[in-house]
Amino acid sequence: MNPLIPLFVVTPLAGAFLIMIIGRFIKEFNKYFTSLILLFLVIISFYSLFTTGENLSVYKVGGWEPINKIPIGIYMVMDGFTVIIVCIINLIGFLSAFYSISYIKRYTAENYFYALFCLMVAGMNGVVLSGDLFNIFVFLEISVISSYALVAFGVEKNELEASFKYQVLGTLASFLILFGIGFIYWKTKTLNIADIKLAFSSGYDKTYYLFVQILILSGFGLKAAIIPFHAWLPDAHSSAPSPISAMLSGVLIKAVGIYVIIRLFFNMFIVSEGMAVLITTLGTLSMVIGVFLAIGQWDIKRLLAYHSISQMGYVIMSVGIGMILVSRGIKPEVAALAISGGIFHLINHAAFKGLLFLNAGAIEYTIGTRDLREMGGLSKSMPATSATSFVASMSISGIPPFNGFFSKLIIIIAAIMAKFYLLAALAVIVSIITLASFLKFQRYAFFNKTDDKKNQQIKEVPFPMVFSMVVLSIICLLLSLLVIPGIRDAILTPAIDILTDPLKYSSTIIGQ
Amino acid sequence: MKGMTIIVKKTTQLIAGMIFMYGIYIIVHGHLTPGGGFAGGVIVAGSFILVTLAYGGDFLKLVKEESGTTIIESLATIMVILIATAGFLFGTRVFFNNFLPKGVVGQLVSAGVLPLYNIFVGTEVAASIFIIFLSLIIFKEESPK
After folding, report:
1. Across the A/B interface, how many CB contacts are shorter than 8 Å?
2. What's the domain count of chain B?
């Protein structure tokens, strides 16, 4: 057993409540303590990344050993795929928390902000590490309920409206998920993901199984904002304070949405072709429609939020292609390539979308508006913001040598090799439209002409904000290295092995 | 907030203490009988809510009470985490490990750390439900008539 696994949940949870007590008596405690907690989590998550590799470690909470190979306790599982997401959560979380040190001064009630932030991180780590279906639900509720409160943190009319919309749709999603979990428990008499897989392997009722799959897909699809379920995302992500937008868009929709969909449909359900085609279709729809909704926006954060839908479409489409090939049982190397493209793009998206939201926050911090038409000429007065947002814009539009280029390239190559020519063509077209909308962002925000008098008063943002943005832009460049075979084998291949091998996950966990 | 009539006040005086004691009973017998931390905590919170409703209290007093309850709530949660961590340190490197002696089945002091968890979960639930109630009252007092 790996004793580090529960620390990912326990540390931020204890931190949240300590902040609520000590933060009352000592000012300034909350911000530095949150950053310290998240720095600690970043260190142990990267330590886990380099030590996990091909291994799969299981942690049995409370020391409840299985009886006759039937798991009775709560399991926490860390494998190649989990550890990547844990690294993303804690790294983006640390940079957002550090960025908040200056940004959140404009709000009151900082204690609540940092306590909720820690709770959100604890919930997301819990969702990703849990090997038990009901615990996924519990941790999901912890993270999304704190995100409802964080979206409404400004308590203005817009924020409250967005938060209300988010709560209604989020509760609907939670209801569907709980319903699905109940149906699974009814048939299989177990909640452990690996055990459910074994129960499904020994035979199941086809229509019942399809019903459960649809419930789970629509529930987590709502959390991931795939296109028919996307209505809450643009409002919620644009109204939240910017570090929270970076967390929501960069991490939350992945950890509680995409990650769980990928994990459950590969490792719990038996991959079926019909479901795989459905997932690919939904992914393609989000990719295409998301970008068309994005290009007309004038509010920076809404524009970025719609691009989140579109970029998540790439990830789902690519993983879906892999799923179709796995279900047909042909071309395993192309399936592995498609899934690796999807996961690579997921990692990249966390980096550049987090960075873009932090840039939007920096612009809002200095000039107090999010409307592109009221900006201009900021490249001279805010050089760091301008340079980092250029890096992020080029990454998301897929310009070499930034990371987005390589992941999109892998996705397109995989689609062509799997003979899905239409999807490959759509991926290219969407990438071009993305480039167009980010050129619009660059031109209006940073290079447009305005009167010089107003611009002379604008200054660069404080150090913590600049630090987070610069670190993220360096990460955007460094992530390109994941395409080099040696590094890819060490980090991406274990994740793909655990997903493509139908029985490895369940047999390793039950066997232990 | 204004209090209620003298009839309500007298009745509350008589029964609030009993409800409180019953909640405590449910909490400490959590490992022996049905109920436990959550159910008992709700009952304890009920007694506090009853007293607040019957006697009322001015705005500043309510706000002060709320901030005190928040601290108790956070402390209870931290205690639960501390007991879980103690299991990690004393036992077999596992969180939520039952490291105390189990005792005789049926006795009040038995089942290792379970009664401790029940007590702190009960405190946490009682405090948080009371906070929800106080926040609603404070919101009503703040908003214009």
Report:
1. 45
2. 1
